[in-house]
Hints:
- The complex is a heterodimer of chains A (177) and B (340).
- Chain A has 177 residues and is an all-alpha fold.
- Chain A is 72% helix and 0% strand.
- In chain A, helix 4 (100-131) runs antiparallel to helix 5 (148-176).
- Chain B is globular and about 70 Å long.
Amino acid sequence: MxxxxxxxxxxxxxPPPTPTPMLLDRLSDASIAVAVAALLGLVVVQGWQxxxxxxxxxxxxxxxxxxILLLAAAMSFGAASGVHTGRHFGFFLLAEAMRPAHxxxxxxxVNLVIVSIGAVMAGWGSVLLLDGLDIKMAGxxxxxxxxxxxxAIGGALMVVFALARGVSVWxxxxxxx
Amino acid sequence: xxxxxxxxxxxxxxxxxVPVAFSxxxxxxxxxxxxxxxxxxxxxxxxxxxxxxxxxxxxxxxFAGEIMMRGGISERLIALASSxxxxxxxxxxxxxILSSLFFGGVSGSAxxxxxxxxxxxxxxxxxxxxxxxxxxxxxxxxxxxALLVPPSHNLILYSAAMGGGISIADLFAGGIVPALLMTxxxxxxxxxxxxxxxxxxxxxxxxxxxxxxxxxxxPGLGLVALIFVGIRAGIFTAVESAAVAVLYALLVxxxxxxxxxxxxxxxxxxxxxxxxxxxxxxxxxxxxFGWLLAYLQVPAAAVSALQSFADSPQMxxxxxxxxxxxxxxxxxxxxxxxxx
Lengths: 177, 340
């Protein structure tokens, strides 16, 4: 899997990384940091649920909706970072075997598909979030539509990362070749 | 037409290298538009896909598996397997197979299994003169046992796909005997291949060493018992057992083995978060794809078509037995053509 533009061999004496890729790296790091926090939060919330049931003898009702929110955050931010680092599963044999000119076109299509899905997630995720802000979650004092927030942000991040990858498909090759 | 569109676009996108999750989502998006349904369904179904309670166990088991892999549990399981079956013909292959069973039992993931065991055993086998094809094949095939033993992620997914109608505890219990049979069959096959190719045996370290390695590996193996007994006895749910597995693995690797330092912990949780995001996104988009299949009544049509010529469980099993080798043969032909 060589979707990550950073995996490409850099020629000797290549210029230092430009601010935009560095900014995208930081954005991806921030995204994965949120996913890490959500994952650790899942452990704490589920651990607390077991502890509260057996030790305090009082099963909390807020753990289930909060768990769903944390899961949505772990997925959305982890998947968005996966677009930047090229970690998503796929079958790349055919694309790898293509001529460079064809591969460039296919890579552009691949990134456009990701942009489209990310845009739909960001757009409709925001609409759904705003629609349910006034309704309270069952079991927790939070808006019912809150789990759509990470989906919307994750979608927007996917758009940014996929657009950057799409641009790098053209700029990198023309720059080095 | 909508069904052809759904599958056609999915296969086309997959073939040109669009990642699986985005192929599923894009094929669904186009089909939604074709059917005149609003795009908002995509986001709603992705949200619903991760809202299934039992799925929450998967990221936590992934995290627990990562902790065990980096915290020293996998090394101890391999050492135990080595002392138990290393002296059989093709010893390192046998060690790889038994280690996969042990590690599959604590990670529940074939990918984690092949990275933890294969990553250690394949280089060792190659270094000791085993053919590469044997080393790779035995490691990959043996790792599949993780699909059967508790806490198999696939069994959790299966339960979720059935709408929770099949208990995870029952699925876990049902996977144990097939997993043991699979391990046994692989060990017998590995033995005959090793004999034909003239692979050697490992030196038996003595019963004292076996006992010491067993004691050292017991906390890791204890996790299998903790998960299995905890769920079967109704002490905790599958999701809670996954959180308990993380805490237990943290306790064993930091306090008992003292191998997981802050730096390793940070790397572990970051890697687990990356894997979790990618896997959950595939599951969520597959839920969307599955919703469309149900909307288009594909499962009902498939069952009806199947029942027209396979009206008994025996007939269905026979079909699977006949079809699987045929599909595999076709797949192998494709790979041979690609290699040529």
